Amino acid sequence: MRRRLLAVLAALIVTSAALVVTLVVTSGPAAASPAVQFTNPLVNQRADSQIVKHTDGYYYFTATVPEYDRIVLRRATTLQGLSTAAETVIWRKHSSGVMGAHIWAPEIHFIDGKWYVYFAAGATDNVWAIRMYVLEGTGANPLTATWTEKGRITTAWDTFALDASTFVAGGVRYLIWAQSEPGIATNSNVYIARMSNPWTITGTPVRIATPTLDWEKRGYAVNEGPTVIQRNGRIFLTYSASATDANYCLGLLTASASANLLSASSWVKSPQPVFTSNASTGQYGPGHNSFTTSEDGQSDILVYHDRSYRDISGDPLNDPNRRTRVQKLYWNADGTPNFGIPVPDGVTPVRLQSYNSAGSFVRHYNFRARIEANVTPLADAQFRIVTGLNGGGTVSLESTNFPGYFLRHRNFEVWVERNDGSATFKADASFFRRAGLSTGTGSDAAVSFESQNFPGRYVRHSGADLFVQTATDATSRADATFTLD
User: Fold this and answer.
1) Which residues does the annotation mark as catalytic?
2) What tens digit of pLDDT does each residue of 347-383 get?
3) CA 480 to CA 477: how far, in whole Å?
4) Which sign, positive or negative, has the C-alpha torsion 329, 334, 336, 339?
5) Which pick of 156, 196, 205, 471 has the fewest CB atoms within 10 Å?
6) Could you tell me which of 365, 366, 354, 362 has the C-alpha nearest to residue 385?
7) Neighbour tally for 217: CB within 10 Å
8) Is 224 in contact with 242 (CB distance < 8 Å)?
9) What is the pTM of this model?
10) What does the alpha-carbon distance between residue 476 and residue 368 come to, in Å, rounded to a whole number?
11) What is the CA radius of gyration of the chain?
């Protein structure tokens, strides 16, 4: 019996060790994951957007409405489905007093079996007396839950405070938010505190970010809208900076998951913004983001708002056209997030990973197409698969950071060039999307691209550069196969 118990214990130790190894492996830098594609904008006239994927199989969406008078929710089983999902009003502003004006930036969280919505609100007699408040919802479906007001989140100062969010690390629940601190000449800074329950902080709040850099002080000196994504043993906290016009952008704080998160020195600010306006793609003022995951759980998704134009007439707060957008969040080889650029409206892009050179992706470099690992900037390796310029059931691959430029072959070399509208260009930039020649599975994830005007020739790499060539043996078929990421 003793020997049997020892054997069982030994087996458990081996199993536990295997689990530890598995955990270590899966927490490392992310490899390529299956492509996810959406059509942007996801929801028009919705700002400060948050999407939560819940255990019931639904995505829940909430955001600021341009009237600033109510809190809305949508749900759908897919991210794209939120675009047309019915919207439910779960709470309206008070007719007088506090919570009577400027209903901003709601966030929904499921904590200890109940739903909680954090939001900011002013008062009818002082719309700028912005403070943070909490609703509690009882019921499985928050759209039909019974909601009660839990009141205001009390902080160290009775000052402008907004953008409450919450996360758990090391078994401890924290609140993060933005607030104006007496004695500091900024509009808002980012703070963190422990929580004793979902509507109460405990202990002394810690200021972890102050707008000190040039790109954080354009229009207004602002750090606001904090939110967290955790990966690779680190906590990445994004925040929004500057005025809410085209200057609005995302900054990043990073802390070790094992650090004392209530110490300001644990948080390192990136010196440059990680997500900014992009005139080439027509996206301005991206910010106030959240994170969610794809339907298959294999990709992280960046959720944010922006505008499709730079110039705003009057106060940006009175402009209703911030809209919710989504795109894939990528991860660098060192385990840090790569936000890329706000992609053009329409279908989101993908990366084409070489089938036989793992970790290398199709990119343009001085407009020559090639494969390369660790592509910088990320957008050089992102392409939109669109209807073929030459029709006939073909596709074309449009550059993300150079809209209107397409992969095309010229003298059988593959380049990224501007569509000149000619019949030759359209034919050279049109390809039949085939099942990956090296797999033959017909999977959407493994593809090959056959030239329309030179049948039997495929986009393939020879060394690092891309060509349009025949693929008649195992090596060339592998060279002509790509997986979508």
Assistant:
1) 48, 224
2) 999 999 999 998 999 999 999 999 999 999 999 999 9
3) 5
4) negative
5) 196
6) 362
7) 18
8) no
9) 0.92
10) 20
11) 25
